């Protein structure tokens, strides 16, 4: 029994030495900021709803842009400018900019499953507006949520009433809480 406790204690101590720095140290190591600056970054991430994350990663090809993978909200990006957070983004929506909290991540977050459901609902809504829905080819450009409103934006190629293939743009607004389509706008078809 004592050997088990001793071995467990040694393993925990080893793990802590190699990776128990916590979020402030992870931010500090990735960004090169001081401990105090890193504590401020953590406070700003938490102010918009970041809950729990591990490593801080540098975004490829982006100067001073980093991301964390939050247990609840997935990837959240933040930009450092003049040793401070200048922007925080999740699900392609900015929730913090230049020292000001604009929203919480909970207001803009879309899970992969929800995104698939919103895309499918938008396609169905657009198909109902087309003259030849069986000819439609979709290119969904963006799915953005703000509180209870989701906007799906994209293009669709479909035949018009004369049989010519035409490219149109569409915007579909969906209620996030129910998944019901609120409005559909299709242009150029």
Largest sheet: 6 strands, antiparallel
The stretches of 5 or more residues where confidence is low (pLDDT under 50) are 5-19
Spatial sequence of strands, sheet with the most strands? 1-2-3-4-5-6
Order of helices and strands: HHHEEEEEEHHEEEE
Number of continuous helical runs: 5
Describe this structure in words.
Helix content is 32%, strand content 41%. It is built from 5 helices and 10 strands, in the order H-H-H-E-E-E-E-E-E-H-H-E-E-E-E. The protein has a 6-stranded antiparallel β-sheet with strand order 1-2-3-4-5-6. A 4-stranded antiparallel β-sheet has the order 7-8-9-10, covered by helices on one side. Helix 2 packs across helix 3. The longest helix is centred in the first third of the chain and has 18 residues.
SSE blueprint:
Elements: H1 2-19, H2 22-31, H3 35-47, E1 53-58, E2 65-70, E3 74-81, E4 84-90, E5 93-97, E6 100-101, H4 105-108, H5 112-127, E7 132-146, E8 149-159, E9 165-175, E10 181-187
Antiparallel strand pairs: 1-2, 2-3, 3-4, 4-5, 5-6, 7-8, 8-9, 9-10
Helix pairs in contact: 2-3
